[in-house]
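Hello again,

I reread your note about wanting to compare the complex against the isolated chains. To keep things tidy I'm splitting this into two emails, and this first one only covers the full assembly. Below are the input lines as submitted, including protein chains and any nucleic acid or small-molecule components. They are followed by the predicted structure of everything together. The single-chain runs will come separately.
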Amino acid sequence: MAKELPIVPTATPGSLAEISAASSWREYRPEIQEPGKVNPKVLFFCPEGALFHEEGIIAVDLSVCKGCGICAVESDGIVMVPEYTGVLGIFGVKEGSK
Amino acid sequence: MIDKINLEQLPQEDLFGPGNVGCKGCAAAIAGRQAMKVLRERTMITIPASCMATLGGNNRRTTWKIPFYHTLFECAPAVSSGIRAALEVQGIKNVNVVSWGGDAGSADIGFQALSGAAERNEDIFHVCYDNEMYMNTGGQTGSQTPKTALTSNAFLGKPTNKKNMLAIMEVHGIGYVASASIAFPADLMAKLKKAASRKGFSYIHILAPCFRGWGIPSDQTVEFARRAVYCGLWELYEVEDGIRKRTVEPQLIPVKDYIFPQKRFSKISAEEINRLQQQVDDYYGKVGK
Amino acid sequence: MSKVLMTGSEAAALGAKLSKIEVLSYYPITPAFPAMERLSKYIEDGELNCKFIRAESDHSALAAVLGASLAGARSYTVTNSQGLLYMTEVAYHVAGLRQSVVMGVANRALSAPHSRFPEHGDAVSQGANGWIQIFSENNQDILDNTIQAFRIAEELRTPVMVNYEGYIQSHTQEEVEAPSAEKVAAFLPLKRMPVMDINNPQGVNTVTSPDFYMDYKFRQNEALEKALTVIPQVSEDYKKEFGRDSRGLLEAYRMEDVEHAIVAMGSIVSTARLLVDNLRSQGKKIGLVKLRVWRPFPGKELYENLKNVKYVTVLDKNIVFGVGGALATDIKAAFYGRTEMVINSCIIGLGGAKSGVAEIKQAVDSTEDCSESKNSSVWIGL
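Full-complex prediction:
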């Protein structure tokens, strides 16, 4: 039996983030070390929309961040830190990865 | 005048972005996010074959929160023309109808439909996000690839010049043409907002570096978009109803600071660098200030 | 209803006008252009409330019509030959996105060598693209088929091509009975099915994995199979409403008690009728099956009509190189293992080559001459 699918091949809006595994590509993750120094303009340089602000404080949503490092280059107060603390072998597990 | 965009007052919600499957540091995604901050919900977008068309969704899921259609390669502006006609016939107003192509889907295989829609002065606008190579197929040469750049099918570098799309679109006699850069979001957003507010056809050409194709680290995507502007090779300007205006004054850093760190220019000659620098000096000496 | 003299182009344009198309796009080509010009005149004269997109190419014309359909408008285009080939990529897209687009095709030979004369090569080139294909014998058929095409397309969410031949129909006047606009409006109530909808945003045509692609294709094919029952129903409804019988998938003409049957589609059917009448009057047991619908292929219905005959002469105004006539090939495939009859594929009338009563007679004779091979093929009129 063929799957039940919509007649027209269509996709549900905004639903991709729910299943995206792209954050697992990350080798480094941004850490906001000095929130006061972060340039708010950096919000517009993130390809993922992973940066957001709450009451003026900028934070990172690691569920969508791929770790490109643009935010750390474009703003003070953000530093890229390695995802892995141990030696990552072929079957290694990332510490702290989702 | 470019309307001022206050970056801090823009909505937080992304209508494009989270979960996209673009490479990390993808400038196409940056451009898309910036655009949707100002175009908002009442926008319909058609995107021909390109990274941007494929990274926005798969199977039953998409990152887009507006009507989005991944069109065939040649015809996004024609599809958008049809969408606008259908909206008009149904009396549906205040909708931005956009076609958004890469450099191939705009300047090369997509050029016929783009030129046609511009000549008809369709009430839509087209955005070309230009990474200067055919990156969706692995990085081959196209008309927007600059001279001497190495690509996956030009190991000796491209022998001919980049086609000037902005000039070509300007002579279509359309009301609004503008260049933009992902490194200057306020400028980019103001231009998109203007294109959206105008009746008739507008064209916006965004320089959107591809770190893979250009041979730079992924975190340098925005930096090199900025250097392209600051060295004078990618001028930010707009032509509105025939009036040309530069919107960002370049600092005129040396061209080599933009060129040399990019691996794609690793075979560029000293003469070519000098020629580019001379070209910039002449241009800004004559037209500038 | 009064009869009016009109060309096939005018009948196609009138059919689209009566169907109240809302968006039109086309790129001029011969011999489809008179239908295009007529539609543009209807719009400019204010007789038809429709947006016209003056596309810069055939590819863009169908793309624009597709965009309009996705955004909820009843949409139409006309083309032929090279224009249809150039549209091919979009034609597959329209079908895959299940859009109810209707297209008139003024069938013309394909280049090279260059020819602007009638045959079915252009339609046949699209035989795998997922569109329903209806063929018109005369100008009345063109009008009736165009109106019915919208009903079929919208019910099945599958695009429909209405074929009529260049010059023989597009540029030739015949008497046509035109139904009233009110009755057509009642026959074709507008049900909008927008996919690009600002109030219900969706991503259309995202990258599809192997898990999904095949299932979509299965559903698409299912709709084509369903067309085999929907088309006769629509034809029946049309007959009730307008009094003219379009005969569903096919028409059996003088097929009572026959030994030999001609199978044909398009304008050559009328010529074949003359030959059948003529031979019948001489006592020959010959009949004719007019195939109205080529895609989906009504193999079962054809077999029901032909199962008792000894000879089948298939008139193919097309050639699939290295294979033979498309219609005969389909018939042979559909009849495989069920029959002992001779099925003769007659390539006839390519690029406007003469295909009158004499040529059809020659085809019929060749079928009875070749009984040593039950699967034969001849070229008529070289």
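For quick reference: DSSP finds two helices and five strands in chain A.

B.
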